[in-house]
Every structure is written in C-alpha cells, then in structure tokens.
Design a protein that fits this description.
heterodimer; A: Serine Threonine Protein Phosphatase 5, Tetratricopeptide repeat; 10 helices; B: Beta-Lactamase; Rossmann fold; Arc Repressor Mutant, subunit A; five-stranded parallel beta sheet; 16 strands; globular
Chain lengths: ~150, ~450
C-alpha cells in the first residue's frame, strides 16, 4: 500500500486502482487532506458519488482552501478534462442528482461559482437534504467572503 | 567543507550517466548535468515539474519504470527504452530505476539513471549486418558446428558449460544460446564471478536480509531470484570458492536457496549458462572445483576454438571491426593493406578475438587519412614482429631490435642462433655481436 504508487495511478488517470490505494492509506492517515482531495476525484469518476460526497463535505467543512487553492497546472489536476468528458456525455452517472453532484464537486477544484451553480441545482431536486444545504451554505459563505461587494 | 547535499551534487554531476530523481508525487527533484546534456532540458525548467509533463513519453503513462519498481518491488536494470528530449526528438536509452525509501521503508521518491545508446544501437545494426549468427562473426567450420549445436539445443532447458581461452567470445555464445532458447523473453542476468570479492558473491547471487552484515542496510534480492524463470550467465565460474560451488549445486539440484542472514528457503527456476577459461578437469584434480558441479553444468558443453585455430576467420573479423570502429570513431577506412593483413593472420593471438578487436580499434584510432589500415597503424608489439620476418625478401634493420624481441625470437627457435640469424637475414657473427652489445649471453 504505497502512496507513491497511488499517486502514479492518479497521475496516469487510472482512477480505480488509485482509489483503492488511497482508501487504504486513508485508514492509516485519516487526517491527510491531500489524499482526501485526490480520493474525492477518484470516487466521483468511478461512480461512488455517495463516498465522494461524504469525503467532500468533511473536507470543505474542515478546510475548503485545500480544494479552492488547487493550482490546475502545477498539480496536474484532472478536473478540467473530467468535467469536459462528463458534460459532453451525460450518461456518465446513474441519475440527474449524481450528475449534478459529480460536476459540483469537480468544479470546486476549478471555479467556486460554477460549483455553487451545480449544488444549487442539486438543492432544487432535494430542498430538504441537510448535506446539500450544508454544502451550499459553505460555498455561499466562501463566495461572499471572496466577493463582499457583490454579496453584501 | 561542502555540505553533504552539495557533495552529492558534485558526485552526481561528475558521472556520465544521466540521473533524475522524483519525489513521491513524481515531481522532478534533481537532474544532473549529464541528464541535462542528454535531454536538452535545463535544471531550472524541470525541477518541480511532473516528470510525465516534461518527458511526455508514451511509456510515462503505460510503463513508468519507477511505477514498475513500486509494483514489483524489484529495481530495474538495463531496460532499453527511449526518452523524449527538449526538441521532442526521441533518443534510445538504457535505464536503471529504483525507489527511494525512508527509514520506515516507505517509498518517498524514485531515481532513474540512464545513458544514451544511440551509437550502440547503430553499432548493433552493423553487427546484425555483418555477423553470421546472433552477433557472432565467423565462418570457420568449428564455429559453424557451434551455431548448429546452439540451434539444436534451443528447445532444451539444460545447463550449458562454455569453455575456451580468454577473449574467444564465450559471452557472445551465451547471448546466442539465450536468444534462441525457450526463455528468450525472460530475464537474462549476467554475472562475472571473478570480479566480485568472494565474501560478497553469495550476497550478490542469493541476496541478503537487512542487517545480515555491516553494510546490509535493507533487504536485497540476489541474481538467482532476479533471474527466476529466465537464465543466468555465470562467467568465470572456475574462480568460485568451493563453498559457493556447493550453493550453486543446491540451486541446480533442488532449485532452492536462502538469502544471506535469512532462514526462509526460496525457490527459483533458472537455467545456468556457465563459462570459464580454465581447464575445469585440471581444477577438479587439484581439488579446486567440484566434480559433481562440473557434471551438472556440462550437460551441454561447448568448447570455443582459439583464434589461432580459426585463422580463416581473421580477415572476416578484421573487416567487421574496421566497419565497427570506423563508424564509432568516424573514420572512413575501407580495409587493410596486404602486409598488415599478413601480419595479423600470422600473429599468435593469445588474447584471441578480444585482442584482435583491441588491435583494430587501436589501428583505427591511430590512422589519419589512410584509405586502408597499414602496418604502421598496428600496435607496436605486432609491428615489431614485422621486422623479424622477411617481408618481400627484404630484411633491413632487423638486427637493431631490442633485447626483448631478440630473446623472444631466440626462444621461438630454441636458442638456435644459426636459425635466428637466418630468419633475420644476417650472418651468425653479426647476430653474435648484437647479442653481446645487448648483454645477452
């Protein structure tokens, strides 16, 4: 169980073995934010939306900057290309809500505003869902902090 | 005093092999000067970048060597592949890869060392074009019989013992056996038993466990484990100690061994090709080599003839070496003059093909604008012989040779001075005076 090997799989976009290894490492290093950050993407792209959402919620509650401060180029973040693939083939997920959640999660690595747009749509589908409410609340709060003039 | 890091940098920058290290994220942390020169990438361009983003090689995605080491746990040695340079041109390289670990044995990075083998590949093309059998040059009857034998044993997994004087090409024969065998796609591990100190050979062949001796800082697999399912070439097997011979015998008989300092018995399935230039039967009678091992190894014995017994191959070999070294040293040499060829054909070649190869390399380096190699291009020891033999009936200055050469000639003729004088084309009294002046009685 090597983090380095998991990183390799992640780097070459082989997300299934990367996910398996990151999950094992996370059992030992449950506070490792960098592993959570990559594991979330692996879970989205392997269709494990529930697990992705669980990790995503806990990470943005704890430290949203880990995701927001992603440098797409220097971190070789796969999100832009994955978003492109998902948006062009919307049969990627089993349901409309999974599709919106998946994109909402991935967009946060690239653009907070776009991410919130998708989570707002998720909220329309399930307005009473506490988890979605919590996510949109965190994202809105952060957006208003970043753009005080626009949101105050 | 420079600190450890700068000292390491100096060391790594002083070697001709390219060295690149990455961290656990596969971001480049170090590139030495040789790697900069080979790839064209500058240090400041690549440090901190993902290696796949820099080299953009197909193998980065499908067959990353460091990832292979992480998956298998075995370092990679001498993998032939290619690397993309700054100008997107791809160069063939031979690389080694290993994983760097912390004190808890957790991978923290990787290191790749590599060298440009473009020239080697081009030379390989020449070898392919010129050789008669898997890189071997020679049409002599004895050699043809060996080629035939190698083809006949290609379906067999039996161990092979190659004997022959030094420089006769035992390793080339081993390569040919491997290349035509059922195991040709498996690992082929070579080890020269004479260059590794006796006390380290066991560790090299069978591996060791961490702490088994002072410098055993981590577990290490041995060559027999590395060659599992493949072939191992044990060169200079006659130099092994009797104790080591016993261990080799056990691998042959049972296919088992233990790493040094470990009690776990491991299995391996390895075909052994052994080679030696010593007379093993004599070594057996002197108690230096185990008879049982000899019989186990020599299931398929191959004896290579010395070059002096295949003189008909010498012109062919000369022609091949001229092409090879002419290419390597960028000299446009077409062939060799008859006088020089005569000398080479009649030389005793105690160092066999290797000596001939070195002599032609020397001649090519020494040549200037000649179209053909001449006597003057040949090594001194061969040229000096020229003055002892009558060439075109002339024999001037032969008597002016030094004492060593005269003694050599006298030895050849059992100190028959009349005969030597005849060979030199001088009368007996002239030879006598010359010997006296040199202080030779």
């Amino acid at each position: 169980m090597s983090e380095m090997l998991a990183n390799h799989y992640f780097l070459v976009r082989n997300f299934l073995p990367a996910k398996t290894l990151f999950e094992k490492i996370l059992i030992k290093e449950d506070s490792n934010k960098n592993i959570k950050k990559k594991l979330i993407i692996c879970c989205v792209i392997t269709g494990e939306i529930k697990r992705a959402l669980e990790l995503f919620t806990s990470l943005i509650e704890e430290d949203i900057d880990v995701i927001l401060n992603t440098d797409l180029n220097s971190e070789d973040c796969p999100c832009p290309e994955l978003i492109g693939q998902i948006e062009n083939h919307n049969n990627f997920f089993n349901s409309e809500s999974e599709y919106l959640i998946g994109l909402g999660i991935l967009w946060l690595y690239c653009d907070l505003h776009q991410s919130l747009k998708y989570f707002n749509k998720v909220l329309v589908l399930a307005p009473d869902n506490n988890q979605y409410l919590k996510i949109t609340s965190i994202l809105r709060k952060r957006l208003s902090e970043d753009n005080p003039d626009q949101y105050n | 005093m420079p600190n450890n890091d700068s000292r390491t940098d100096v060391i790594l920058n002083s070697i001709a092999e390219g060295v690149i290290t990455v961290d656990k994220e596969f971001k480049i942390t170090f590139i030495n000067e040789a790697a900069e020169k080979l790839t064209g990438f500058k240090r400041e361009q690549v440090i901190g970048q993902f290696c796949k983003g820099v080299f953009k090689s197909e193998f980065c995605l499908s067959n990353c060597p460091i990832a292979q080491v992480l998956k298998n746990g075995n370092s990679i040695f001498d993998l032939d592949t290619s690397i993309n340079c700054v100008n997107t041109q791809s160069i063939p390289i031979r690389l080694n890869a290993a994983v760097l670990k912390d004190e808890n044995n957790i991978p923290t990075g990787g290191v790749i060392t590599f060298r440009d083998i473009s020239l080697f590949k081009q030379v390989e093309d020449i070898i392919k074009a010129e050789s008669q059998f898997h890189g071997i040059v020679g049409k002599n009857k004895a050699m043809k019989e060996i080629y035939q034998l190698i083809m006949e044993i290609s379906d067999s997994d039996a161990h092979v013992l190659i004997t022959g004087e030094t420089g006769t090409g035992k390793e080339l024969i081993a390569n040919a056996i491997q290349a035509t065998s059922k195991r040709k796609n498996e690992k082929f591990v070579k080890i020269n038993c004479s260059v590794i100190p006796h006390n380290l050979l066991a560790s090299e062949l069978f591996g060791h466990a961490k702490g088994s001796f002072t410098d055993a800082k981590s577990d290490r697999i041995g060559r027999f484990e590395l060659a599992n399912n493949g072939t191992i070439f044990l060169d200079e097997i006659g130099e092994m100690t009797l104790q080591m011979q016993t261990q080799i015998l056990r691998v042959i008989q049972e296919g088992t061994f233990e790493r040094l300092g470990e009690s776990i018995t491991r299995k391996t399935d390895v075909r052994i090709i052994a080679a030696t230039n010593i007379n093993l039967e004599e070594a057996i009678s002197e108690g230096k080599f185990r008879r049982d091992l000899f019989y186990r190894l020599s299931v398929l014995p191959i004896e290579l003839p010395p070059l002096r017994k295949r003189k008909d191959d010498i012109p062919l070999l000369i022609d091949y070496f001229i092409k090879k070294f002419g290419f390597v040293y960028k000299k446009n040499i077409e062939g060799i003059e008859d006088k020089a060829l005569d000398l080479l054909v009649n030389w005793q070649w105690s160092g066999n093909v290797r000596e001939l190869e070195n002599s032609i390399e020397y001649a090519i380096i020494k040549s200037k604008n000649e179209k053909n190699l001449t006597v003057q291009n040949l090594p001194v020891r061969i040229r000096e012989k020229a003055s002892f033999v009558k060439i075109n009936g002339k024999s001037s200055n032969h008597i002016e040779q030094n004492s060593v050469n005269l003694i050599e000639l006298l030895n050849t003729h059992k100190w028959n001075k009349t005969k030597v004088a005849e060979v030199l084309g001088v009368d007996r009294s002239t030879l006598w005076r010359r010997l006296k002046s040199l202080g030779i009685e």
